[in-house]
């Protein structure tokens, strides 16, 4: 039980620190930062998969599935935002008359 309390404490502190750090970033930098952190999101997904492999049933498997699902959404969303950002910089075809 003390181990769980320590992990929850670290998690809650990480949420607060993450929120404070992200809230200080200017809006013009959000998209470039998102594209630069896709590799980190991939590492989170790999970590979630590794944890899922050694999870204790039944609750560990449920939390592992949630972690893998959220990490996958994070990775896909990061690449979608990056692709959308790159589309803004492509040259547009001239309009036909």
| Helical percentage | over 70%
What's the overall average pLDDT, rounded?
81
Summarize the biggest pleated sheet.
none
Order of secondary-structure elements: HHHH
Poorly predicted parts = none
Number of strands: 0
Beta content: under 5%
How does the overall form come out from the CA principal axes? elongated
Q: How many helices does DSSP assign?
A: 4
Distance between the termini: 72 Å
Rounded to an integer in angstroms, the radius of gyration calculated over CA atoms is: 19 Å
Structural class by SSE content: mainly alpha
What does this structure look like?
This protein is mostly helical and 97 residues long. It has helices spanning 2-23, 30-36, 38-53, 59-88. It is elongated and about 70 Å long.
Summarize the structure in short.
This protein has four helices and no strands. By secondary structure, it is mainly alpha-helical.
Index terms:
mainly alpha, single chain, 0% strand, 97 residues, 77% helix
Write the layout of secondary structure elements.
Layout lengths: L1 H22 L6 H7 L1 H16 L5 H30 L9
